[in-house]
């Protein structure tokens, strides 16, 4: 297997049938993602970045083209791809522990003992620093903590690829920064391949190995891909004055606001 | 704080007082209708020995209440056993929804007592016919509310189930059931209300031991005090059932 093409999208089209007729959301999306790479998808709202993510997640079936993960065709959701949802999507009637356990149970129950499953759950919660809250219910914890549980749930399945749909979009700036730092630590430790949808330019530059900038829909596609060549571990304070960082940042801004200004925003 | 609480009790007290006054006034101008005082005296007498047995047509108020409750319990219980699963199925599978929706829309508005002759015909006995009426009139709210609950499960939860690749059983116990429980409980509460509403009328027609038959019997004896007492007893038990189910629903609250 070619590890530079762990996730592979070739000529992917996505057409939704709506009441007003077919709507072409994506056209000719080509993207190769290497194992261990951190990719962000950025673009104006409605550009189909979540659609791309959902195709990789297996939640949407692309209309034509090829979508592969580890050289296998993506035919639906699978435990090799963990998903972190935009609005955490925790089940409110289960404790944080049970929310994570549900995922662990599904993937490992066939091969592991109850004690091992429990340990995996606790490890996942420990990784996001939530050991103390494992017996709390989602409505008893803050928005940032809920999103951490969502991340723990995805990580607990030990997926090869972590798919994140604007995971920090609903959080305040300080919490968001904190979680970004933790996510960087986790991915450094686990070497997960990450695909993250975001509309936050700073987040994209800080976290990514490559930034995939998408053109506006309908018929959205990959506009440009920016390789972010900054050494890791990255420190947001040090990078604030780093000319290379600011150069990348300007590149993304230029793409979003000069070349592909959102029609409605203009 | 103390002042607020006593004010809060004042309004319902005034309401009850007004009701009793109005009742006294009407009974004063209409000597056929017993007033609150004679009704109270009669009630005290009646509840002194609620469980006497004097042949099949003369039993204590306690037996009447228990028999009515038992019929409601059986009819409603069977309706729940059928109605809630049916609600889940039509909420989940569009085909069954399309298949059953016309029948449900057609039968739901039918007055409960219209089902009694059918019950008498099929079962040939009064007792199962009364239970049948309870069953058929209390099943609709449970089917409909459960189905609505199932169809309103947030897409997020369904996506979680797909991403985690949950088995059908886990999907049911961890997502479908807890997410629909509040709707199911609302259906159960409405159904119990309907069942209790219908039982008095059904028993009036079918006879036997029970509050409805008792009312009819006392009407034939022209013992109006007992009829008024029956009205209060029916109302009070209906209220208690409702409160009990509200309490249960808040205990089962999942969010």
Automatic annotation (TrEMBL), chain A:
Coiled coil: none annotated. It is found in: Cell membrane. Pfam families: ABC_tran. One of its GO terms (molecular function) is ATP hydrolysis activity. Residues 9-241 form the ABC transporter domain. Keywords: ATP-binding, Cell membrane, Membrane, Nucleotide-binding, Transport. It is a peripheral membrane protein. Its main location: membrane. SUPFAM superfamilies: P-loop containing nucleoside triphosphate hydrolases (SSF52540). GO terms for cellular component: plasma membrane. Belongs to the ABC transporter superfamily. This is ABC transporter ATP-binding protein.
TrEMBL record, chain B:
It holds the Pfam family BPD_transp_1. It is found in: Cell inner membrane; Cell membrane. It comes from the Bacteria. One of its GO terms (molecular function) is nitrate transmembrane transporter activity. It comes from Thiothrix fructosivorans. The gene is ntrB. GO terms for biological process: alkanesulfonate transmembrane transport; monoatomic ion transport. NCBIfam families: ntrB (TIGR01183). The lineage of its organism: Bacteria, Pseudomonadati, Pseudomonadota, Gammaproteobacteria, Thiotrichales. This is Nitrate ABC transporter permease. The keyword Acetylation does not apply. It is a multi-pass membrane protein.
């Amino acid at each position: 297997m070619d590890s530079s093409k762990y996730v592979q999208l070739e000529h992917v089209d996505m057409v939704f049938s709506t009441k007003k007729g077919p709507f072409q959301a994506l056209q000719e999306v080509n993207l190769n993602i290497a194992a261990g790479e951190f990719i962000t998808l950025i673009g104006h709202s409605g550009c189909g970045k979540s659609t791309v993510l959902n195709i990789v997640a297996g939640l949407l079936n692309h209309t034509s083209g090829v979508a592969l993960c580890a050289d296998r065709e993506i035919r639906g959701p699978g435990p090799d791809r963990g998903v972190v949802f935009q609005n955490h999507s925790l089940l409110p009637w289960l404790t944080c522990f049970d929310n994570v356990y549900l995922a662990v149970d599904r993937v490992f129950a066939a091969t592991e003992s109850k004690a091992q499953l429990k340990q995996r759950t606790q490890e996942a919660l420990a990784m996001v620093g939530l050991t103390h809250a494992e017996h709390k219910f989602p409505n008893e914890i803050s928005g940032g903590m809920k999103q951490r549980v969502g991340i723990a749930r995805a990580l607990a399945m030990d997926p090869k690829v972590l798919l994140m749909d604007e995971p920090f979009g609903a959080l305040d700036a300080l919490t968001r920064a904190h979680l970004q730092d933790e996510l960087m630590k986790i991915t450094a430790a686990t070497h997960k391949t990450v695909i993250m949808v975001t509309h936050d330019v700073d987040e994209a530059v800080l976290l990514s190995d490559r930034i995939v900038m998408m053109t506006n829909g309908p018929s959205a596609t990959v506009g440009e891909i920016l390789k972010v060549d900054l050494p890791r571990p990255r420190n947001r304070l040090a990078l604030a004055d780093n000319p290379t960082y600011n150069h990348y940042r300007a590149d993304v801004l230029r793409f979003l606001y000069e070349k592909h200004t959102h029609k409605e925003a203009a | 704080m103390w002042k607020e609480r006593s004010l809060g009790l004042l309004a319902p007290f005034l309401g009850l007082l007004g009701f009793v006054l109005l009742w006294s006034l009407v009974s004063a101008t209409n000597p056929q209708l017993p007033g609150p005082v004679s009704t109270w005296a009669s009630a005290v007498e009646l509840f002194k020995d609620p469980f006497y047995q004097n042949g099949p047509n003369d039993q204590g108020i306690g037996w009447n209440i228990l028999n009515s409750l038992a019929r409601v319990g059986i009819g409603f219980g069977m309706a729940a056993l059928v109605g809630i699963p049916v609600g889940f199925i039509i909420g989940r599978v569009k085909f069954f929804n399309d298949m059953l929706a016309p029948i449900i829309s057609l039968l739901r508005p039918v007055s409960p007592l219209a089902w009694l002759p059918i019950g008498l015909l099929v079962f040939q006995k009064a007792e199962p016919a009364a239970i049948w009426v309870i069953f058929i009139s209390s099943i609709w709210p449970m089917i409909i509310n459960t189905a609505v609950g199932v169809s309103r499960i947030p897409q997020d939860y369904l996506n979680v189930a797909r991403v985690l690749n949950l088995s059908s059983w886990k999907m049911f116990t961890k997502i479908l059931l807890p997410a629909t429980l509040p709707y199911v409980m609302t259906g159960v509460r409405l159904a119990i209300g309907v069942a209790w509403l219908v039982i008095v009328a059904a028993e009036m027609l079918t006879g036997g031991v029970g509050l409805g038959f008792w009312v009819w019997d006392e009407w034939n004896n022209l013992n109006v005090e007992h009829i008024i007492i029956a009205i209060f007893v029916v109302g009070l038990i209906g209220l208690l059932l409702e409160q009990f189910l509200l309490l249960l629903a808040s205990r089962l609250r999942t969010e």
